[in-house]
Amino acid sequence: MNKKRLIINMSAQLISIFVTIGINFVLSPYIVARVGKAGISYVKMSSDFVSYAQILVSALNTMASRFITINIHQDNYKDANKYFSSVFYANIIVSAILLLPSVILVIFLDNILNIGPELVCDVKILFVLIFINFFISIITSIYSVATYATDRLDLLAIKTIQTEIIRAIILAVAYVFFRPYLWYIGFASIVCTLFLAFANRKFTKQLLPCIKVDKKYFDLGKIWELVSLGLWNSVTRLGQALLEQIDVVIANIFISADAAGVLTIAKILPSTVTNFMGNVIGIFNPQITIAYAKGNTEELIQVIKSCNRMLIFLLSIPLAFLTAYSMEFYPLWQPTQDAIELYQLTILTVGTLYVSMSIQVLYHVFIITKKVKENAFVMLLSGVLTTIIVFVLLKNTNLGIYAVAGVSTIIGLLRNLTFTPLYAAKALGVKWYRFYSDIGLGFLSIGCILVIAFISKQFHEIDSYASLLLVGIPAGVVSVFANYFIILTKVEREMIRNKIKNVLGRA
Question: CA of 60: how far to CAs of 74, 77, 241, 451, 477, in Å?
Answer without folding.
Answer: 22, 20, 18, 46, 44
